[in-house]
Design goal:
With about 210 residues, the protein is an alpha/beta fold. It has a single domain, classed as Vaccinia Virus protein VP39 (Rossmann fold). The chain has a seven-stranded mixed sheet with strand order 3-2-1-4-5-6-7, sandwiched between helices. Helix 4 links the parallel strand 4 and strand 5. The C terminus is likely disordered.
């Protein structure tokens, strides 16, 4: 299995392709589902970890409104550069973007009502530390929503693509497609993180 913790998307070519192709078609619809699971309230403060180019962060800012606050944290300066360049949503909370790994998080203790992480947790080199940092950042009673892909075996189109790649390119290169599916066990989220999890077994369904 390819080590997911090695991939931080620091290549300058990745963020633009990610934002142009994956965000509109894939991550925007699931951002709505993720935030629906947490029910952000007007005036709350939200933290989006591994925010990438900010799709969940901006949506959270809209949901908490101008009296709330939204913070996006990501290890990639290139991702954050794209996020900061996007226009601010209307009637939304101010957004702060912070260059930071998931552990340690460069945020204050007990500062947030809810925390999101969409398709990032499986890439963290120390998931237990990331979960501990999430708890530290949240106010007492704060909510956490984490979305990771389910098993690739349940995603037939990706399984097919993986098989084709293994026939055509170097196996290690082909196996890069497995990285996003490297932590599909919902019980592991509870054991390591002690958090509410939302598992997406493919791009059309979600399960708790």
């Amino acid at each position: 299995m390819v080590d997911a913790g090695r991939y931080h998307f620091q290549s300058a070519a990745v963020p633009n392709a990610y934002d142009s192709y994956l965000v509109p078609r894939l991550f925007t619809p699931w951002a709505r589902v993720l935030l629906d699971s947490l029910l952000p309230l007007a005036g709350e403060a939200g933290l989006d970890v591994a925010c990438g180019t900010g799709v969940v962060t901006r949506m959270a800012a809209e949901r908490v409104g101008p009296d709330g606050a939204a913070t996006g944290a990501d290890i990639s300066a290139q991702m954050l550069e794209i996020a900061r360049a996007k226009p601010a949503p209307a009637n939304a909370a101010p957004i702060e973007y912070v260059e930071s790994p998931a552990a340690p998080l460069a945020v204050q203790d007990s500062a947030f009502d809810f925390l999101t992480c969409q398709q990032g947790f499986q890439f963290f080199p120390d998931r237990a530390a990331a979960a501990a940092e999430a708890r530290r950042a949240l106010k007492p009673g704060g909510r956490v929503g984490i979305a990771v892909w389910g098993p690739i075996q349940e995603c037939g189109h990706f399984m097919t693509l993986h098989g084709v790649l293994r026939e055509k390119v170097d196996r290690e290169l082909a196996d890069l497609i497995l990285v996003p599916f490297s932590w599909p066990d919902p019980d592991a989220l509870s054991r390591e993180g002690g958090v509410q999890s939302m598992m997406s077994s493919n791009i059309a369904t979600a399960r708790a």
